[in-house]
Structures are given as structure tokens and as C-alpha cells.
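Hi support team,

I'm filing this because I wasn't sure whether my run with xanthosine-5'-monophosphate finished correctly. The job status page said complete, but I'd like someone to confirm that the output block is well-formed before I use it downstream. Pasting the exact inputs I used:
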Amino acid sequence: DWDMRGHVEEAVQAIRAQVGDEEVILGLSGGVDSSVAAALIHRAIGDQLTCVFVDHGLLRQNEGDMVMDMFVGQLHAKVIRVDAAEQFLGHLKGVSEPEQKRKIIGREFVEVFKAEAAKLTASGASKNGAKWLAQGTIYPDVIESGGAKSKKAVTIKSHHNVGGLPEQLGLKLLEPLRDLFKDEVRELGVALGLPHEMVYRHPFPGPGLGVRILGEVKKDYADLLRRADAIFIEELRATRDEATGKTWYELTSQAFAVFLPVKSVGVMGDGRTYDYVVALRAVQTSDFMTADWAELPYALLKKVSSRIINEVRGINRVTYDISSKPPATIEWE
Ligand code: XMP
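And here is everything the job wrote out:
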């Protein structure tokens, strides 16, 4: 709408005034906030922006290619894709404790990003060397980091934390979304021409499938999980609720599959199977602090279960998670 277009123009001018002819680096994750920040900054300064996209091998099906198609193929932005899957899996080998896994993934992420950013700030690699680090910080993040969250006595889950990076890299911080709420960020994304599907995507945690594969993370597990998860999401997007006319993807706040490294016996044709289990998780929430499990239609659950078991060799049982938050959390780790 007109208001948002006015906002885009204003934000573009502000970014140009702030950075002048200096270069900017941005860590692109594929999530809504970093994507909208990248699209906005690219609109303002074009090739003065270089995005660094760290693929930790724990992304969803086709996610890396989708990010590249969008930003390089369509927006013609400069994106460096770092394929660090082996490095991440190597460091996660033999580690099954959830907090330890989160810390390793977070630490490696910062390491890989810093190494790439250092190349771009060193003179030679780019014209003058980047002077700015852009982040997709939004207003709720600003409040959270100064407010209640840091005072919490118990850490339930340590989140990805990139605080302190600009100082470590000797870069100035550019945060063009820091006055906006999530809804406004989404509207801005649409106004910038990002696809509705990307802008209205469910949230995805920084550690990715690393916290959706229980216990030790293995490449084979990640491959099975990606396929099961893609089927679940495809069916949620394809199935409409008659009463509201909305898809079940729109009616849920977050939905995904979880890989359980547990084997159970099944029967396929006239043979016995002994394969892994997948749990489906779908929740409805307004703030992600509390959440109810979604009352998905049985017909939808039935279709997803039969497709996963028939199409993903290696999975022979599907369960549905009927735990609310609290006392459960949304993610399993
Ligand atoms: P929980 O599992 O704590 O999740 O109920 C609440 C919301 O936070 C997301 N989540 C994360 N997001 N980095 C993130 O960016 C993380 O480390 C992380 N852990 C959980 C989760 O997907 C849910 O939306």
C-alpha cells in the first residue's frame, strides 16, 4: 500500500545517507528479518552490499537453493554461499546433549561468518573493504536484549547470539529494521517484492534441524527428516479449512517434523521393517511463549502419515505431538 511504499523510500534514503559510498556485509539466514533487511539495503545501495549465507547443512529441503534463486537469480544481489555442512557435522559428531549441540552450532556459525567477513574487510578482496555490518534486528529484539529476558534466572535454551560481532570485526552496525514490529517487517518485505511465501513463512530456529534431530546429529538422519518435513509442510499448504477458507499452514504458527533416533517394527508388503520414527509438531500461538498443539483434521494427519511412510524409505512410523507449552516447549530440544 501507499504507506509502506512511502516507508520504503524513506528507509532507502536513510540508508544511503548513513553509509554513503562505503561497503556493507550482511549475514543472510533465509529467515524473514535478514531477508527483508537484505532486500531493503540492496534496494538502497545495490552492489555496495555483500550478503554472506552460511549453509550449515541443517537447513530444510531446497532452502539453500531457494535463498540463492531469490537473492541472486531475482534481485541480482551479491551473495557468498558458504557450504559448511561438513565442518558443522564434524564438530557435532558424538555430541547428543541439546545445550552442547546449540553451543557448538552457534559458535561454528560465528566462526564461519567471521572468517568470510574478514575476507571482505581486508583491503584487496573488495574495493575499499567493508565498513558496515548489517543485521535484521527488529523492535522486539531491541526490547528483549535490554529487558526481561536477560534477567531470567534459568536458561531453558541458549539462543543463537550474534551480539558483539560488529566490535569484533571492527565494523559499524547498520540496523534498518530496528523500529519495526514483525507485521511491519512482513509488509515491508512484500512492498520490496519478496514473495508472500517467503515473507509469511513460519519461524525456523537458528540451529535448524540440529535441534529437530534428537541426540546425535547425522547426515542420514537430516536427509530423512528433510523429506518428511517437506511432505508435512506441502500438505499443510495444500489443505484448506472450510470454515475460514485458510490453509492449515496459515492456521498454524509453526509446524515441522522431528526425527526420533528410535527404531520400531513395521510391516511393508509381506516383509518386516525396522525403521525410524518421525513426530509431527504443529502449534498455535500469538507470542511463542505459550502455545497450544494444533487440532489438525484427522484426514490431513492421515494423508501426511501415509505419504511419509510410503515415500520416505527409512521411516515406518509417524506420531503426532499433543503437548502444549508449557510444560513442553515448541522445539523438542
Ligand atoms: P521453544 O522451543 O523454546 O521455542 O518453545 C520458542 C520459539 O523459538 C524458536 N527457537 C529459536 N529461534 N534460535 C532461534 O532463532 C534458537 O536457538 C531457537 N530455539 C528455539 C522456536 O523455533 C520457536 O519458534
